[in-house]
Amino acid sequence: MIGRGSLWLPMAILLVLAVLSFWIERSVQVAPSGTPAARTDPEGIMENFEALRTDPAGRPQYRLSAKRLKHYTGSKLTELEAPRFVHLDPEAGEVSAVARQATVSPDGNEVDLRDDVNVVRAAHAGQSAMSLRTARLLVFPERDLLRAPGAVEIRDATLTLRANTMEYNARQRVIKLTGRVQARYISGRN
Predict the structure, then answer these.
(1) Element holding 3 (H helix, E strand)
(2) The domain at 37-185 falls in which architecture?
(3) pLDDT tens per residue, the chain (190 residues)?
(4) What is the dihedral of CA 124, 93, 178, 98, to 10 degrees?
(5) CB contact set of 110 (below 8 Å; sequence gap of 6+)
(6) What is the spatial distance between Cα 100 and Cα 121, in angstroms, rounded to a whole number?
């Protein structure tokens, strides 16, 4: 009888440990939406962040800065507050984009600018300055591509354009407008 009673105590302890392990595992698992529970607590925060990307020869390609940068371990996403993206091209001219918020993909190949996005192409060699306003802009730095999935307004010294969506290929210097496109040309002659 003593032999049987002594087996129940270790079994009860193992059962309690199993239930406790199950409870701990459930409390730290990833939420069903795919968003890690740790997303609310960033791994790192930087104030007045600035990064410069150069080509293999050391020439600046683009600069990304923000008032605050938050990086999350679980999702590998980076969030930016008051971001500013500047594409540096001595031949085509400087293009800058600012917004209230942005998210950078884990590999850094996509920057999603949101809320009051304003893009400005500086005046350069026979071209006036140009501005673009939209609510959201996707920037693909490695591909020299800008994409606005929603309504855009583009202005320069002689032209005002409005469209439902836009894509700008900086390498080819081509702007593709889709949806309902409206254009207003202002003659430069007096």
Answers:
(1) helix 2-28
(2) Sandwich (2.60)
(3) 455 555 555 655 655 655 555 555 555 555 555 554 444 677 888 899 888 888 888 888 888 888 998 888 777 788 889 988 888 877 777 878 899 998 888 887 888 889 999 988 888 777 788 888 999 988 887 788 888 999 999 888 888 989 999 998 878 878 899 999 998 988 765 5
(4) -110
(5) 104, 138, 139, 140
(6) 19
Q: Which two tokens stand for residue 146?
A: 């800008």
Across-strand partners of 49? 66
Burial 152-171 (b: 16+ CB within 10 A, else e): bebbbeeeebbbebbebebe
Cα distance between residue 27 and residue 24, in whole Å: 5
Burial, 22: exposed, middle or buried (Cβ in 10 Å; 0-12, 13-18, 19+)? exposed
Burial bucket for residue 132 (CB in 10 Å: 0-12, 13-18, 19+)? buried
Domain ranges in the chain are 1-30, 37-185
